[in-house]
Amino acid sequence: MGKRRKPSPPSRARMAVLTTAMAAGGAVLASGTAHAEPTPNLATVKEQVDQLNEDAEQAIEKYNGFQAKQQKLQGEANQIQEKVVRGQEAMNELRTRLGAVAADQYRTNGIDPSVQLMLDSDPAAYLERASVQNQVSDSQASLLKQAQDEQRKLDQDRAEATATLAALDSVGTQLAEQKKDIQTKLSQAQEMLNKLSAEDRAKINAQQNAEKAKAEAQQAAAAAAKDRASRSADRPDMNAPVPSASGRAGAIIAFAQAQLGKPYGWGKNGPATFDCSGLTSQAYRAAGVTISRTSEEQWKDGPHVDRANLQPGDLVFFYDDLHHVGLYIGDGKMIHAPRTGKNIEVLPISVMPYKGAVRPA
């Protein structure tokens, strides 16, 4: 038998290729591992969806503010434009009267230089010419002065109308941007929910209902403890029952109760859907009281009330930026329009971060 040849050691080139291939394979595996997105758990999804809905509600109140400002500016613009029309009509009448003066002078001694200037182009400059003033009669001077004043007012009104319309256009742009922001946030929240199974969505709803029930139980326990403490201290003023919802408060709460179960609708103030400040503003309107449209402005609509002194009909506010408001109905509860996808409901005021209360005058 011939001698068995020993296998030759791998060449450096071959080793380099193998090493490179192994490194590349390892990199692919590592890359695949690094970029694999973990499936979020229900708690994470719920937290993210809640945050998106809260962000959307903040944007909705800003939208309501822009909308109220737009309506105010539109009203102002309409009034100013009406003033411009009336001013132009007055100027036309003055020009007609001056034309009659000019015709009369032409038939007698020729057109007075002042009237000729008046009929030319710019009535605002005539009385500034002393030489002209000296050549006109008192009646003509009065007519020219009236025309000058009317022209000045007309110019001011036109400038104001231009500025108001520019502001209106700017608010319209902000309104469109805010609407887009709201729709984006709500779409993101819905997309996250759509990725869940029906079972998982049911679990999230069950968690929310459990949180609500827990808050109601805590509120009831706190109220009972307060009542026991008041009785044991024998303080009649503290034992007074929650004020009954009568008179104005009764009308406010009756309106809110009639809306229970209706869906939340951002930017809406009824009659089919409401957002939080839309519900409160319409409830007060039903009682003959006008308050602001947005929760931020409603915070300024009356004196602030301590939590211990809340009465039915008071406005209750939540979060540091005041982006949510409800109607207090007594017993630590409120009626409010919660958020997109929810219906108007009764809820303990302890469920959300309480900011304060207002009792509109």
UniProtKB/TrEMBL annotation:
Alphabetic keyword roster: Coiled coil, Hydrolase, Protease, Signal, Thiol protease
Q: Which residues form a coiled coil?
A: 42-97
Q: Which Gene3D superfamilies match?
A: 6.10.250.3150, endopeptidase domain like (from Nostoc punctiforme)
Q: Where is the signal peptide?
A: 1-36
Region (Disordered) spans which residues?
137-158, 206-245
Q: List residues of the NlpC/P60 domain.
A: 246-361
Question: Which GO molecular function terms does the record list?
Answer: cysteine-type peptidase activity
Q: Where is the composition biased (Low complexity)?
A: 206-224
Q: Which InterPro entries match?
A: NLP_P60_dom, Papain-like_cys_pep_sf, PG_Endopeptidase_C40
Biased composition, class Basic and acidic residues, residue ranges: 147-158, 225-237
**Top-level division of the source organism's lineage:** Bacteria
Picking any one GO biological process from the record gives: proteolysis
Entries under PROSITE patterns matching the protein? NLPC_P60
- Family of the protein in this entry: Belongs to the peptidase C40 family.
This one is known as NlpC/P60 domain-containing protein
